[in-house]
Structure formats: C-alpha cells, structure tokens
Design goal:
Layout (H helix, E strand, L loop, with lengths): L5 H9 L9 H16 L2 E6 L5 H11 L4 E5 L2 H18 L6 E3 L9 H8 L15 H15 L14 H6 L20 H11 L2 E5 H9 L10 E5 L4 H8 L2 E4 H11 L6 H18 L13 H22 L7 H20 L5 E6 L6 E6 L2 H10 L6 E6 L6 H5 L6 E7 L4 H4 E5 L11 H16 L3 E4 L3 H11 L7 E3 L5 H10 L4 E4 L16 E4 L10 H10 L3 H18 L10 E5 L3 H4 L3 H6 L5 E3 L2 H13 L2
Parallel strand pairs: 1-9, 1-10, 2-4, 2-5, 3-4, 5-9, 11-16, 11-17, 12-14, 12-15, 13-14, 15-16
Antiparallel strand pairs: 6-8, 7-8
Helix pairs in contact: 1-3, 2-3, 3-4, 9-10, 11-12, 11-13, 11-14, 12-13, 13-14, 21-22
C-alpha cells in the first residue's frame, strides 16, 4: 500500500460512490495536502463546491500515516465526517486507522450531576421548579436515557432537551474540577470521549474546541501532526469568540445554586444572588453598546462587589469539612469568575468589551481585537505546533493577515470547482430596483421576488439578511404565490430543508443561518435569491474596534471581504451537483452600480451575468423544460 499514489487512492475510495464524477481539483488538492504534510508547511486551499474537499485532505493524510485533528464549524460536517466519510475510507482505502468524534465537555451528560440531581429517589432541581413538573419530567427522561447510553453525548438524544433541563445534568469547562477530583471521574462520559480521542489516529472536533485547545496551551486534545480547519472562512470569528469570554448573571446564580447546600450560613449565598440581580440590571440598558476603557464607574462597582461576594462564597466553601464534590465545582467556577471579573475591570488595550443579548439575559462579551496576534502567539510562532491545512469553498481575501499567518509561512491554492458554472448558472442583478437603503425598496423587492418565483415555477430559496425582511416578504407573498411557502420560523432547520427538498415546487424563505451549509441538489432548487449584499452590521462593537484601528482602510479590509465571502456562500447554495442548473438573483443594485461591485462579483462562481429579467425568465424556462 505504501506504493499507491494519492490519485489511485482517491480512485479506490470513490469508486463506490453513486454520483462519482471526474474531480481533477480533488486530486490537485490531495497532492498539495500530501506535500504540505511532508514538508511541514501550512497550506490554504480554496476548494469550490463539488470538489470533495473532505476526501481531498483525508486520503493523503491517512495514506501518509499522519495523526490528524479535523476541526469543523458545523455539526452537519462533523456528522458527515464521523458517520459517512471516515467509515467509508476505513472500508475502502486499504489503510488501517481509528477515528473518534470529540465535543466540548458541556455536550456530555455529567454522571456526578446526575447523581446529585436524583438525590436518592427524589429529584433535587433548581429553585422554583417541582420534580413533578415539566422540568422534572424532562430531567427524568434524560436520566433514563443516560442509564443505557454508551456515550452520554447530547447529539445522540432521541429528543431535543430544553437548555434548563440539560443544564441540570451537565457542566461546562469552567465548572468541572477534573476527573481526579470528582467521585464520578472514573465513569465520566466526557473523560471516556477524551480517552477514545487520545487513542485515535483521526479526531473530529468543532473549531471552538480547537481554539480552546490552543488557549489551554495544547492540553485538551491529543498530540497530532496535522490540523485541518474545514470551513476556514469562519475561523476568524470562531477564534475571536473562543479566545475571549462572556460574563452573565446566570454564571453567578449557577455558582450560588452549587454553593447553597455546602455553606451553613445562608448570608454569603444570598448576597451572591443579589450580585447576580445587580449585574443583570446594570447590563440591560447597555445592550448593543461597546464599553469604554476603563469601564464606567457604575458597572465597575457592580463587578467589584460581585467579585468580593464570589470570593466570600469560595472562602466559606473551603472551610466546609465535607467530601461533597460540589465544593470542587464551586471553587473551579469561582476561580474562573474572578479571573473574568478582573479581565473586565482591567480591560487591556488589545481587547474590546460590549453587551449583547435579550433585556432579561444580557451578556457582557470580551474578545481580542486582533485575532491574528493571538493566533500567532498561540499557534503559528510555536515551533512544536502542528502543520495546518485551512480549506473552504470560499477563502476570504487576505486570510493570512487576518489570521496572523505571515506570507512566508504558508502556500495558497485554488483548485476551482468541477461544475460548469458558465453554462449551468446565470447571475442576475436587479439593477432597476431602488437602493436597499431607500424606503421604497421593500415593496419593489417583493414584486421582483414574486416575478422571479413565478418564472422558476416555485423551486426558490430566498435568503434574507434580517429576520424582519424575511417575515415581511413572507407576509406579502404568502397569499399571492400558488406555491407552498416555507419560512425559517416554521420548523427546525433539518426538517425544514427536508420539506423543501421533498416538495419540488415549494419555496423556502430563510435568514443568515441558511446562507451556508445547506445542500439541496436536484430539481427542488433552481433559483437562489439574495435580498441584499450581506455587509456586517455597522454598529457591531467588535468590528467597530477593528475599524477604528484600520481607519480609512477599514471598509476594504473588513466589510468588503466579509460581504464577499458570505455572498459567495449564499450563491453556493444553487449548484450542488453536476446536473444542477439555475439562477442566482441579487436584488441589491449596488452589485452593479457601486465601485466595489466588481470585487464582489469576482468572489462568486464564474457564472454568466445579466441585468435583464427577461434573460432570467428565458433561462429558467429552459431549466423547467429540462433543456
């Protein structure tokens, strides 16, 4: 087997695929990945839709016997790798290897929490709930499932638990004291998953967990030669979220709940609950706002008081003579809280803080302004760091500088797509519509969308940049269209996509969560409509801080590349197989009229272009006729 070429190995692996097609880009990518692993040099690969990028990186790395971590941004791709691609390669490739799926600790039921919740025969739930009520029944159902589950992993549940029910039987990384300090550590679902990962040749994780691995100094995941970051266009944002932290009243209340059974004097715990209420009250009016540096006196006082009260509860817990494992969790969670309080009270220049969330659940977020500098320190500059393969169907412009990866440290490659976009797809810009920022745009865009849907005979996925725009379009067109209209509000995502796929003349209206990661090949989708160019919010606090640093170059270096990447992702929902044909319609006239329009067009697949709706109607008529 050592003599087989990468191309032959790919052929062997894909020989049983029902829709096997010639994919020269996949072979080119696989050879580049093999070379990158051999010379230990980072690689960035743009692999357009249809390339088969997962096999393009898995086959050469398995062939070479590398230990690999694959980090993905979506659960769908994790499941594809763990349940389809890797099992198929284990059967077809002729190389012996093992693989494991590993998720963050909060994704696994905690046996110790389950023991504490049962309290013998009685459920011991958080205050305000009865064991015989809906929460109690749901927790009992979780416990019954855990009794027979081999993994305890939330994704394997036959039902979707409420966040409060799952919180009763799980812990996050800021609460868990570790296996050696927990009575259930030897029987822990999360630790068992980590042990399986430690013995595997390929470990599939989410990108958030890989960022935490970097932040921890490399202690969360087993040693590996190569890390593949699939869906790498999301790495900057995921790293920004994972390398920061969030403070909310819920964390303080959770600490109080854990400490209450331990501390004989109720006063410190009651004071902690008061501190949570005070934090909730002071954050609510600041939602959507970026915090000053240093933070204002009112917020600083609330955080200082909360810090003192967390310290008091920790001190009281230390003096309790008990083997109760909740004490270790109290000390762990309290330590993390104090660290985060100090992080806000002494906010450094390289970080930005802001408040987001609902009024009764506001969250104080802190993140690094320059993700690249942090990644360079934690990853690129470390001599022992694994070689990285960053890949996506759409690689953002200037990805190296954005991630802190110097130009002399990586190679970049675009292997294109096997699909014949020039003949299979048409790009239409509705230049005659008003500017999207004008009040008249909404009604005009609804009329345009209706005409396009009629030309397509249904079979439309309309993607909107806001929930409000989607709802307005659905309300306006629902009574007028002769086709079934599905919206994102109707069903869970997977069920919604299945309904859309199975009803060939239906229409699906959705928002940003559907601009990427949605795969509907075949006759159910022949028209993708994008309501606006998806520029990031101008008031996004984190991006505001980055814009301030870049000054006049901010639009070119931040807003335009982000919009181009997401626009390409949205357009990529159309052609999903070699036989697909259809139209991408952009209702935002700026694609044709603005100076930056060509930068956006160049980020899209190489489709024929038109500004005439008549051309769209003619093209879609041919698609419907099967021409």
């Amino acid at each position: 087997m050592a003599q087989i070429s990468v191309a032959d190995a790919l052929g062997r692996a894909t020989s049983v695929l029902a829709n096997r097609e010639e994919r020269p880009g996949q072979v080119e990518m696989a050879n580049a990945v093999a070379r990158a692993a051999s010379i230990q040099r980072h690689l960035v690969v743009q692999a357009g839709t249809g390339t088969g990028k997962s096999l393009g990186y898995l086959v050469p790395l398995l062939l070479a016997g590398n230990r690999v971590v694959v980090a993905t941004a979506t659960k769908a791709l994790q499941d594809q790798l763990a349940t389809r691609d890797l099992p198929m390669l284990a059967e077809r490739l002729g190389v012996r290897f093992t693989f494991a799926l590993l998720k963050g600790r909060s994704n696994y039921l905690c046996r110790q929490r389950a023991l504490e919740v049962t309290g013998g025969e009685q459920l011991s739930l958080e205050e305000g709930f009865h064991s015989s009520g809906p929460l109690g029944r749901e927790v009992r159902r979780l416990l019954e499932w855990a009794a027979t589950s081999e993994t305890g992993e939330r994704g394997e549940l036959p039902f979707e638990p409420s966040p409060r029910a799952w919180a009763q039987v799980s812990v996050g990384h800021t609460e868990c004291p570790g296996a050696t300090r927990c009575p259930s550590g030897q029987d822990c679902f999360a630790e068992a998953a980590r042990q399986r990962a430690g013995q595997a040749d390929v470990v599939v994780v989410n990108t958030h967990l890989y960022a935490f691995h970097l932040l921890s100094g490399g202690g969360l995941l087993p040693e590996h030669d190569i890390v593949v970051i699939d869906e790498a266009h999301e790495l900057e944002d995921i790293a920004s979220a994972s390398l920061g932290f969030a403070l909310a009243a819920g964390r303080i209340r959770s600490l109080a709940r854990s400490a209450r059974p331990l501390v004989s004097d109720p006063a410190p715990v009651a004071a902690l609950d008061d501190a949570a209420d005070a934090l909730e009250g002071v954050l609510a009016p600041r939602r959507g706002a970026r915090l000053s540096r240093p933070i204002d006196a009112e917020l600083a006082q609330v955080l200082t008081t909360a810090r003192e009260r967390v310290s008091a509860v920790m001190a009281a817990s230390r003096h309790v003579e008990t083997d109760d494992p909740r004490r270790a969790r109290v000390l762990e969670a309290g330590t993390h809280l104090i660290t985060d309080f100090d992080g806000v009270l002494n906010l450094p220049e390289h970080q930005v803080a802001w408040v987001e969330g609902e009024r009764d659940a506001a969250v104080l977020e802190v993140a690094p302004i320059d993700v690249g500098a942090v990644l360079d320190a934690l990853w690129w500059s470390r001599p022992e760091a694994p070689t990285a393969v960053l890949t996506s169907a759409t690689i953002p412009a200037a990805i190296g500088p954005r991630l802190g990866l110097a130009a002399d440290r990586f190679d970049q490659l675009d292997v294109g797509s096997p699909f014949d976009y020039a003949n299979a797809a048409l790009l239409y810009c509705a230049r005659h519509l008003p500017d999207p920022r004008e009040p008249s745009f909404a009604i005009a865009s609804h009329e345009e969308l209706e005409a396009l849907i009629e030309a397509a005979g249904g079979r439309t996925m309309a993607l909107f940049t806001s929930w409000r725009a989607m709802q307005a379009a659905a309300a306006a067109l629902g009574p007028r269209l002769p086709y079934r209209l599905l919206t994102q509000a109707d069903l869970p995502k997977s069920a919604l996509i299945e309904q859309f796929r199975s009803d060939e003349q239906s229409c699906l209206f959705a928002t940003m969560g559907f601009w990427q990661g949605v795969d509907v090949p075949g006759p159910s989708l022949s028209l993708v409509v994008l309501d606006r160019i998806p520029f990031p919010r101008p008031d996004d606090p984190l991006l505001q801080a980055r814009r301030d640093r870049l000054g006049r170059d901010a639009f070119r270096l931040i807003d335009l590349p982000r919009a181009a990447t997401l626009l390409a992702q949205g357009a990529g929902r159309l052609i999903r197989s070699g036989s697909d044909r259809g139209v991408v319609a952009v209702l935002d006239r700026r694609l044709s009229t603005a100076r930056y329009g060509w930068d956006l067009v160049q980020a899209l697949p190489p489709m024929r272009r038109t500004r005439e709706r008549a051309d769209v109607a003619e093209f879609l008529a041919a698609v419907r006729a099967g021409a």
